[in-house]
Amino acid sequence: MRLAISSDHAANAMRAELCAWLSEQGHEVSDLGPPDDSSVDYPDYGYTLADAVASGDAEFGIALCGSGIGISMSVNRNPACRCALVSEPLSASLSREHNDANVIAMGARLIGIEQAKACLTAFLNTDFAGGRHQRRVDKLGSPPEGAPS
């Protein structure tokens, strides 16, 4: 698979380790930075990752920051992205199966590298179920007129 990954400074070490591991698994990985541990703003890296997924340069994205919250919010600003913040494999799998998530977000300060690998394995090995879930996913991109607010 073609994957793009980005982080902020808090998740730089996890990103580097996941890049190497994913490459060993046979994936084509585009590392979108940052280049070192210097302080950066997570929205910049979230937007860059979202653009890579939205343009089709990557099939899936991996977004990392200290908690995973901030970078997931920035990725989700792009209407072509459905970014799910996860911390264990079941949520990672369900985000694909039910929500057709195309970006996974994780918090490097909250989960360890082995849990991150388990989440990625579940995410990348789960297909979208479609069916009744499709109409719900469609509504994420354009809420119907008269939808409850």
Write up this protein.
- This protein has helices spanning 12-24, 42-54, 69-75, 89-97, 113-124, 132-141; strands at 2-7, 28-31, 60-65, 83-85, 103-107.
- The chain is of the alpha/beta class and 149 residues long.
- It has one domain (2-141): Sugar-phosphate isomerase, RpiB/LacA/LacB (Ribose 5-phosphate Isomerase B, Chain: A, 3-Layer(aba) Sandwich), CATH 3.40.1400.10.
- It holds the Pfam family LacAB_rpiB.
- Its EC number is 5.3.1.6.
CATH class: Alpha Beta
CATH architectural type = 3-Layer(aba) Sandwich
Basic shape: globular
Estimate what percentage of residues fall within beta strands. Answer: 15-25%
* Overall structural domain count: 1
The helix-strand sequence is: EHEHEHEHEHH
What's the helical proportion of residues?
40-55%
Give the class from helix and strand content and strand pairing. alpha/beta
For the record, what is the CATH homologous superfamily label? Sugar-phosphate isomerase, RpiB/LacA/LacB
Strand order, biggest sheet? Answer: 2-1-3-5-4
Output the CATH topology: Ribose 5-phosphate Isomerase B, Chain: A
Major sheet summary line: 5 strands, parallel
Instruction: Give the rounded overall mean pLDDT.
Output: 94
Catalogue the unreliable spans. none
Radius of gyration: 15 Å
